[in-house]
Amino acid sequence: MQVLLESFISAWQALVSDEDRTTLIDALEAGKILYFYSLAFSFSDFEKKFLSPHWLDGSRKNISLQGDTVRGARGDESDLQQLATMMSRFAGQATQLVQTLFPQYGEQLRTARTSYRPARVTHRKASWRKDDSRLHVDAFPSRPSHGERILRVFTNVNPHGEARVWQAGESFADAAQHFLPRIRKPLPGSAALMAALGITKGKRSEYDHIMLHLHDEMKADSEYQRCAQQQRIEFPPGTTWVCFSDQVLHAALEGQYLLEHTVHVPVSAQQHPECSPLHMLENLIGRQLT
Ligand SMILES: [Fe+2]
């Protein structure tokens, strides 16, 4: 499968024909990466000082925006305020893009986090589970999604001409078929216990249990990482790409300086709900998972 669908759209709020919208949403929901090769995010002159990893406070690998404040960054109050302003501008533009391209999702979109990643991609040999240079699908251990989709907008803002390099893997259905036989059912009562202990925010559904194990089994399997079908993709600075990261098998190999904004989409809002990981897994397993 050709994993990229290239688009000439070069504005966050572009005029898009109905035909192009249909092509884009069909490709997105089929598990492709929409690649906007002329869609850039600009830093103002005074914001260019944020193009340095020194703004990270060392507690985490990314700076995140929560409400109108930044987490994981260090600096004086006015610097942090300017950083938050830059990140909220990106979040606003990413939201505009999603609303323009996929009006079908309408009011059902739920805004999640925005992150700024000024650190160079590292290969975390010490912790395979946290090593995003291994192929994986995104799944959140502490925030059960119950099937809700993870739609992400990424923009490479590297000022030195360096591409963000991804590896994209085989289709979700093929990967699920490969790993499902290894995934056992959750222990009875474990979801309620994890919620009661505050390990998860709400009860983890069987869907969440399977997605987390899919993430872990895939990353832990060195032979799969080496031999599975995959392709290298280079996203130069000044480009933007959008995908359902709970469906597209991806690995971040190289790069520095990335902005990312996440929105959640309920399966019921999809044009092709049968293409969602929830429905694909339910079909393979033969029972309801939420
Ligand atoms: Fe990821």
Tally of domains: 1
User: Separation of termini?
Assistant: 29 Å
How many helical stretches?
7
Summing up helix and strand content along with how strands pair, one would put the structural category as alpha+beta
- Helix fraction bin: 25-40%
Pattern of helices and strands: EHEEEHEEEHHHHEEEEH
**Largest sheet descriptor:** 8 strands, mixed
List keywords for this structure.
single chain; 290 residues; binds fe (ii) ion; three-stranded antiparallel β-sheet; alpha+beta; 11 strands; eight-stranded mixed β-sheet
Your description of this structure?
With 290 residues, the chain is of the alpha+beta class. The protein has one domain. It has 7 helices and 11 strands. The chain has helices at residues 18-29, 77-101, 172-179, 190-196, 206-220, 222-227, 277-285; strands at 4-7, 33-36, 63-66, 69-71, 110-117, 149-156, 164-168, 231-235, 240-244, 250-254, 258-265. The strands form 2 sheets. An 8-stranded mixed beta sheet has the order 1-2-9-6-11-5-3-4, with helices on one face. Helix 3 crosses helix 7 (277-285). The model has no long low-confidence stretch (mean pLDDT 94). The site of fe (ii) ion (FE2) has 5 residues, from loops. The site of fe (ii) ion has 5 residues, from loops.
